[in-house]
Amino acid sequence: ADIPLKAYLQPYFGADTPVFIENAGKMTARPFLLEPELFGKRALVIFSCWGLSSCLIEKNHILSGKNSLIGEIGHMIIDPSDGEKCGCGGHGCLERLVSAERIDKLIAKRLPQYPDSLLSQQESAVIPALLEAAEKGDALAMELADYLAATFASALRNISLVFDPDLIVFQGDYACAGSYFDGQLRKHLQQFQYFPSEGPFAIQYDRRPLAEMNALGSYIALVNRYFNQPELYTGETDTESV
Q: Is 43 in contact with 166 (CB distance < 8 Å)?
């Protein structure tokens, strides 16, 4: 908090050069601004890799807020009785409940009951590998995938009460989820009686590489913030320096 990144970067680019700083979750979600079927709708794009965050898109506009906290769903409190303290100061944050460290602890606790589990071959938890093992019918992986699905369902229920999205998109670690995780997620969501029987929203798993999405999102940011600003290109141009 309160780290002056722009001030640190400005000397490298010159005082007259605009500097735009954005987090990874909002940058990798920017390509969805180009999706015609989302125009006029609400979408929640969930970014999961080295951390957990999201981007909320409404009517082709990314929501941010005064403190740029809109979309920081990793710090949504799901279980305030949880003993682990998050870096934000809270207990039971979504990011901590689904972290690799938490999954490692759950695997170590449950592995004696599942000695033949595919997860016993891993030194540390990797979410894509866990979801793949669950898809193959590994009992321990299925148990943990159900835990992850239930935890995300709680978060999505809370988000629905204040945003009511038309679409949920998973990027990164959970983009590789198969039918088991998806089915468990939808099952837990159905427990909320106020959701319609056909489901509260569409769910997609975007398997495109995060690096590719980040590059495309950066391109879109450049177009919207610089190339579409005529005032940045007024005056004489020094053709010899171009």
A: yes
